[in-house]
Amino acid sequence: xxxxxVFASRMGRMxxxxxxxxxxxxxxxxxxxxxxxxxxxxxxxAEAFRAAFEKIxxxxxxxxxxxxxxEGHRPLRDWIAGEMGRIGVPCTRExxxxxxGSQQALDYLGKLLLSPGDTALLGWxxxxxxLGAFNAYEPRYDQLTPGGxxxxxxxxxAAEAAGSTVKFAYVSADFxxxxxxxxxxxxxxxxxxxxxxxxxxxxxxxxxxxxxxRGEAIPPILSLDVARSGSIEAARTIYCGSFSKTLSPGLRxxxxxxxxxxxxRLVLMKQAADLHSATLNQMAVAxxxxxxxxxxxxxxxxxxxxxxxxxxAALTAHMPEGVTWSDPEGGMFVWLTLxxxxxxxELLKQALEQERIAFVPGGAFFADGSGRNTLxxxxxxxxxxxxxxxxxxxxxxxxxxxxxx
Amino acid sequence: xxxxxVFASRMGRMxxxxxxxxxxxxxxxxxxxxxxxxxxxxxxxAEAFRAAFEKIxxxxxxxxxxxxxxEGHRPLRDWIAGEMGRIGVPCTRExxxxxxGSQQALDYLGKLLLSPGDTALLGWxxxxxxLGAFNAYEPRYDQLTPGGxxxxxxxxxAAEAAGSTVKFAYVSADFxxxxxxxxxxxxxxxxxxxxxxxxxxxxxxxxxxxxxxRGEAIPPILSLDVARSGSIEAARTIYCGSFSKTLSPGLRxxxxxxxxxxxxRLVLMKQAADLHSATLNQMAVAxxxxxxxxxxxxxxxxxxxxxxxxxxAALTAHMPEGVTWSDPEGGMFVWLTLxxxxxxxELLKQALEQERIAFVPGGAFFADGSGRNTLxxxxxxxxxxxxxxxxxxxxxxxxxxxxxx
Lengths: 405, 405
Known about the structure:
Oligomer: homodimer
Radius of gyration of chain A: 21 Å
């Protein structure tokens, strides 16, 4: 049969990601890769998980293997509510929905808020997975600038001119993928001002929030929102958290923290979409989080901090003039801007062929297809020695390209 | 903020299920419940799973805890492809996508095929979770009759009159939820004829297919389709399988078997929606399936067969005249039709209050809101003794209601 003729119109927006296709080619052992943005598996708390699964099976596996409620495992929701309180968001388990990673939260929030043609505000560049999730709901995008300095009226008029309505702003406030950048307190407050002026929800993607290596922690936007509005029930910020960067991505456990009016709708959505996240995994994550979360994330911060510092030092040592980069205080990424006119996708070919190193060209992170002279480096899986060697090689490729241009 | 004003239009179709709300009230220890349609947890292969998790953690947990590909764990896809071959569907792992239960497959297929207003054909009654999943994509429904005897032209014209297009037919061929009924070979062939005439895909929900207690197995619709069209790549049937009724629902592992053109699109969708199903769970299910699937499902069939027979015998013994019921050859359900004018939702109140028994009123399974004189009984979690007591009590409630009417 002619499948294309029966697909829904939204499928026109769901294309294979060039990056993901590319990444499949990059995991060759002889390549030093700064491409994938994934945790170092050597740092997983494997022993703690082994013990957690053993304990669950020793104390009766029936509940772990059975259907469970769409909201999520109660002790895990309680633990998360406590953790949210610790970072400045007083709430209860009724404000928490367990999702299959924060990627699922982004999909559900697109589904909750976007009708075709609605406007979503997000950064140029932004998290590729957010674009992927939202694209399924056929939105229009407009560019969110840090601090929201274009002003509510400008966004509203641009949407109206396109026959659209602004439905939400999406932002990663801490050590964002792909830039590694963090919003200042003032920028967070400005975003809240903008969301208030437009009367829209603010989606806060906090996937990397626990991984700060230096500098002072800045309160999550949701925390600032609760301080303004008096209670999480009066807040407009929807917070997406994840255990993927702290405990394990393979177990697919994340959460949404939001007013109950939002959680109730997301629970209905989850019931219809996959019933619930795996019961056993939620129990294991609850057990491991209760036991070792604080000390484990401290170990992660120590380890990744060294790699981050090594990359920043190596960039300073090896990048030619005209190349600039972000100064991440946490997370997994450094963002490079090359001289105007350079094409990072072209550069990647040379880097792979001539120097056996890999990174992600930045263009795919831009909703408008710009940003060809940018690239993303991840330091999460490389030792300081490999980082030094890799940046030396990147400098060599860049200098050759600059000479050729 | 006024949340209702920012929700997408699809949220108007996503309502809390009365049944699910009801089911929360029914799990009281003193109630004999025939309501939930879930496996008996005493029959879970808990020891096999315990051993599988132990083995995975003993042989290196890094891969199990890490991100993995959206298509699913290769050894599990291979095992499923082999199992599909065994039931008459020659295919390879390239035809298999792992989903988080078959509920997720239904959500993805709605997302793949339905634009708002498109027509989906399905039975009156049908699986409540299918209605829930599809509702998010705002379809129009039309009634699929067994054998599709309304004819392609009638469906096409009805859709056209509503400004719509028929996009797929959805069916559960074996021991359907809620009726327990099975389509004959001829009815399956007729459905394929209808799908061909309308040039639409056929969605085959096979959640209960492995649980046949008597009678001859009838080939899956996908198998008949492959026999007609020569190859799975030329088929129009999309098969949704699940381990929820055979190994464990709590691990959330199911699959789609379909032409590669469909799988490729669903892989993109999964990447955007939740990246992949939990790696560890897929590895554990692969291990357990490879080890004990055949003998375990045989044990399940033996056990549930006894309960099914007990329920049918007890119905014959205790139902008053005018009540009829389906004759399931497998699965978990018997479907009762009460005399016209009776309301099963009213009856449930009396059954709970007077006799401490529970079932599911049938109305919710009808896309058009009819079927108020029907109800669903599940025999999966009750012993033959409880079934006998329960049906005796149901008969008493029914006779009282008939006298009152």
